[in-house]
Amino acid sequence: MISNQIQLSQAIIQKTEILQKLHYERISADYDAHYNDGFSQKYMEKFVFEPMFKGLDINNKSVLEAMCGGGQTTKYLLNKNARVTGLDISPQQTAHFKKRHREADVICGSILNSGIENETFDIVSVVGGIHHMPPYTRESIAEIHRMLKPGGYFCFMEPHSESVAESFRRAWYKRDSLFAENEAAVNMSELRADFKKLFDFKHEHYLGNFGYLLILNSMVFRIPLKLKPLYSPSLMATEAVLNKVFGKPLSCFVVAQWQKK
User: Is the sign of the CA dihedral 66, 71, 72, 74 positive or negative?
Assistant: First the structure.
């Protein structure tokens, strides 16, 4: 009976992963263009990467960029002299990754079945990948914990559900074909309760407003890439000011740093 239940569970997970893979293969070209252009990179370096890796010595550390796509975080990590490995389920995205970052390694596979050995990495980073994993969010983070060395860091950025924008986001997710059916923003209160025995929670920042929506998510709003240079510089400046006053309820995403116990 237990064996049958395990096999059934694995089959369900595999089906979910296949649906995710097919979905992101379909939007791969547009996704890569919009999330890896120069202005998206500038946005992420300032508002995502700097707070996400704050206080960490990345030099010569082994870093897994999990659910890496085309490698949004890789250039930043390589510039800090990290040893980077990417992991993504999409063959198209891992091909983009390898073409863009020849000095890094990349694995085409699932976070739930990567084949990576226990306690391999000093740091695992995820930018916008965990919210693609429901109903296997907890299993995904448990895998990240397994792959981290003792004392290693899980650094991530995700849209969060404890925001006034959550009802709008849920409605949009249901109606927009750019989103897979299982996508859902993370609830940090629930995740901290689930993983308090496995991680120390080092810091948590709530950020993201108009720049997040119109610079980083230009694909979602169907904004032509040629228009981004016209508004991005002013929105970057506005974002920096509003992030100081908006706080958790009015912010679109969370940046967090957890340390493996």
Answer: positive
